[in-house]
Amino acid sequence: MLTRLYIKNFAIIQELEIQFQRGLVIITGETGAGKSILMGALGLALGERADASMMKDKQTKSVVEAEFKVKQQKELREFFTEHDMDWDETVVVRREILSTGKSRAFINDTPSALAQVQQLTSLLVDLHQQFDTLELNNKHFQRLILDARAGCLDELSRYQEKYHQLKQIESAIFSIQENIRKAEEERSYKEFLLNELDELNWKENEEKSITDELNLLTHAEQIKQSVGAASYLLEEGEKPMVAEIKSLISKLQSLTKYHASLEEIVSRLTSVHVEMKDIANELSILSDKVTTDEKRLEELNARMSTAQRLVKKHGLLSADDLIQVHQSLQQSLADFQENQSNLEQLQKEYAASRKEAMNIAKQLQQKRSKQIPLLEKATTELLSRVGMLNAMFKVGISETDLSQHGIDQIDFLFDANKSGKFEALHKVASGGELSRLMLTLKSLVAKSLDMPTLIFDEIDSGISGEAAKQVGILLDELSENHQLISITHQPQIAAKADQHLFVYKSEKNNLITTGIKVLNADERVQAIAQMLSGENPSQHAIANAREMIKS
Predict the structure, then answer these.
(1) Domain 1-133+432-519 class?
(2) Domain residue extents for the chain
(3) Mind listing the pLDDT tens digit for each residue in 168-215?
(4) Which DSSP helix (H) or strand (E) runs through 94?
């Protein structure tokens, strides 16, 4: 509920503060006293565009501050979470117009964008002014009224959960189809690349292995000659080195008995002899193994050439990196098959989910269709009560494809004069008629919907007498469960107030300013009596005013 409104330096309002109560709050005052300015200031707090021309004193800023007490509603909690604000049961929205003409907005002293203010206040206040047909012509609002009367809001919530699931599956299907489309465009080329790598069948560390073998084969003749020569020098030749060492050992061996140091030298030479003989043997074996193989050399060169060509093709650093590319291509083509499989599974889930959603939507459609004649009858009767004796209300329903709210398009239609010709509301209803229609519709669903503070600006336009009395009764009934603020000129409506605010003009230091005060019981009687009979009401008018308030 709206608990406080503070206004400073706005139009002819110098500074004022209003404390609002629960229930039905009535605002009255003479024409031109500033009631419309009050609504303009409130509209500014609710997020309307700032107008620097409304500043009373151009040297200082204008301020409008609205304070609300809020409940833990889902939409409100989601708003605070979405915008990373701390939850508080007291919400203060402030708008400032600076002397430069620029404006600023704050939510609980946090600088906020105008769109944020509008989003928040739309959950807190429903301001209905004359010729304000936006909400009545809003398809969501019309459907909400019908669903509230039909008692299918829980069912609608269940449907929307299923519909949300359906849209998620639909999105996943689209994503996979897009992946498949892109993969299909590249599939043939990737298969070609994979075939090249399959044919190559490159192994890990093969590049080093081939490089080593190529070096060996390329220099095989040179190696064989050198190894053979070394082996020949060690064991054959005119003076084989192995035999010479053996002979030397024999000569020195006979002298060890004469010189102790020679024994160690002989031992070392013996080790050299064994090592040289072993080396000679290995060189001989190596020489036999090293062969020139032109065919093998050609094969290896061709394989390395193919590998290097693919390295360049794929923009790699080494041939061993081809293994990773090979695995990546295999995975990519495997993903294509998996996508196809997932797509088929999702399409089955989509079909099943759509069937479930359609079943719920059909149930909603049945409940809505059943409720339509009841809503039409109840609304038309209430319109008659509030002075629209010839008005007829009709609800059109037509089937559409699945949407967030089911398969029904709802249209509220109106015939002001029982002409039998029903048209859209904004085409045939006047501002006063629309206000009363809004009141009747909201009174019909007041107990089913958790509505914000309702504000009606001059809902009594064009009515008086019994019609005004019935409007007052509807406002009174509606205010039992909701805070309702109404500007009125009708005493029958003012008499229903739980709180009566009076707007007046005063002059101080040659300046005209607007003020507002809460009327006590006696002041209420006087104000309503003046609304009945003029500035100086008779005793009869005062008695009549007392009776109206009492009743």
Answers:
(1) alpha beta
(2) 1-133+432-519, 182-336, 521-551
(3) 999 999 988 887 777 776 777 777 888 888 888 888 888 888 887 787
(4) strand 90-97
